[in-house]
Amino acid sequence: MLSGFSAMNWIAGGATAAVLLPVLAIGAGMPFWVACIVSLAAGGGLVTAFSPRKPFERLDASGAARGRIEFARELLTDAEPLAARLEAAVSSIGTPKVADRVRHLARVSREIFAGVEDDPLRVDLVRRFLTYYLPRAAELAEAYALLEKGGRDMARITATAELIDRLDVAFTHYARNLQSADLGNLDIELKLLKSSLDEDLGPPPQLGAPSDPGKGRA
Question: What is the mean pLDDT of residues 79-108?
């Protein structure tokens, strides 16, 4: 069964082709068979353009990395609706401080998703975030909105807000883990580049090193 979003893609593509065919064949005087080809191409283009994008679809999922990429794709596919629930919960929360905190949780989640998409081999760095902290955050945000509407159980409202604050710290921690991995890779690349340059060009001149005495007598 097609998902709602996918079905809409096909409906939009079919409607475009159906409208474009008589316009081209009758209005523009184009041969019917040519109008059919152009209309089908336009409709198919819309279906393709608005199809949901899969994580890592541009990566070569072959060889030893295939299993890790597939695992990361599954985790992100499951995590995407959770981030959407956080974003939706923001509008249901009346306390500005808590709403801002939940909004930040959603934004950090998207940043972590992007980091994993850039390098799915780092998914182990944020696996606990994706499978535990993010689902709990979505549940807590929705629970806070419901408690707030009830307005009676202040102890639970306060406790839930405190946990949301602590989750914000955890989210930031995992985002920094991905950034640290980026910096670690940069350090390795810099060392390799320096080694290659030293091998090809020789080590750079040292600051303050004495000049060649031969040059002074020339």
Answer: 95
